[in-house]
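Example record used in the benchmark description.
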Amino acid sequence: MQISEATLQFIAEHARADVRTLALQSQKYPEVDMPTAITQIAGRQVAEAKIPSWHSIEGIYYPKHLSMEQCSSEATAHYKAGLVEGDTFVDLTGGFGIDCSFIARRFKQADYVERQTELCELAEQNFPLLGLSIQVHNKDGVDYLKEMKPVDCIYLDPARRDGQGGKTVAISDCEPDVSILEDLLLEKAKTVLVKLSPMLDLSLALKTLKHIHQIHIVSVHNECKELLLVLRNEAASSSVSIHCEHILPTGESQSFSFTQEQEKEADCPLAHEVENYLYEPNSSLLKAGAYRILTQMYPVKKLHISSHLYTSPEYIPHFPGRKFKVEAIGGFGKKEQKALLKDIDKANLTIRNFPSSVAELRKRLKLKEGGEVYLFATTLADERKVLIKCMKT
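Model output (structure tokens):
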């Protein structure tokens, strides 16, 4: 990919400019390839937060918006790299190359496969700047898979958009369809790492694929970002290990592992009342269905079998999720609401196992969004509907 000196200078001078405004000014800069400049400026702006180690390197070229939107963040790519290692590695769905660049460092030899010529050109430009020697193949991933020699590890991130650009979730709706390729993938690699939609139901994944060894659910800033499956030549079972990773804004992580069998067999004590502290599991745990087992791993009780909120008399600083000091509890009668919400005109509102949406309840309570007060509308073990007023710890 070649960019003229005039365009490179324009990119450097307008690194923080609004790209929508620049798009309207192309006639003022006839010597500048404005579409290329806008793509690079927008890409660098996204990379500053999403892949900071790339942003700091001069000469990295970026793809169009959709590829930047779909690529992994540096935090999640780094996590994936920690799951695999060996001698030989192939990324069958290379994309912009973020995942490939991080995972490749764990192997002696790495190959990047991508059918879009433009992305291959970017990979050939960027990998050497990152100090990586990765072979780039401008080919269809499935065709390459059929012809390739066996390797230690294959990674693929199937496209999760349909022909109209809409997002898909089911494994069979992705391209390529891993359920069809599963046996061939495991003929060609000892370990296969697959990235799927975080919206996919885990039980559906276990029914669809026969050789799931591990499941990893990765959240960033309490937003579920990735569902990762590690496939190996062994049958899936209820003892498949599920690993929940929540990457905090500080860069620290909350980690929790369990099996579906452990979750099913765990006793789950219910609280008779809301105690001094309230806990909401992080999004990875909620996605994984780690509900009962939390009461075995931490000294907490569940408010209701379906509420997924927990309480304790003493503060538990290492609980993997949001933690709150309970200020007051009330029902939904007018007098109770008035007393509970006195001098409050805004609050952060969450519902758990409650017959109303956040928007409906916010309107009913006449509260704006935000502030330091946190309100949880939920159902207790005795089926009472309550509003719990908290402060974040």
